[in-house]
Specification:
Elements: E1 2-3, E2 6-17, E3 22-33, E4 38-49, E5 54-66, E6 73-84
Antiparallel strand pairs: 1-2, 2-3, 3-4, 4-5, 5-6
């Protein structure tokens, strides 16, 4: 979706494998604002395995913006990763 110098894009993806009893979910979001010269990218990925009763989750957030004092671009990165074994799935 694009309007007034702003681009906002959202994507979802779900994959399932009946043989290995696994499924995964991927989500990404990109937002660009030409007026404030900022953009951000957020991504998350979830994998569930019913056979081994495990799941993992990975997420990242990147945000870029101009520095008004130095006229440079600052980058902020947040990465979160978690893995929980032996979790009972219903």
């Amino acid at each position: 979706m694009e309007y007034e110098g702003i681009l906002d894009s959202l994507e979802h993806s779900v994959n399932a494998d009946a043989m290995s009893q696994t499924w995964s979910y991927t989500d990404s979001h990109v937002k660009v604002d030409a007026m404030s010269q900022t953009w951000s990218y957020t991504s998350s990925h979830l994998i569930v395995d019913a056979m081994s009763q495990t799941w993992s989750y990975t997420s990242a957030h990147i945000e870029l913006m101009p520095c008004p004092r130095h006229d440079l671009t600052l980058a902020l990165l947040y990465l979160c990763r978690c893995h929980v074994p032996n979790m009972v799935l219903h």
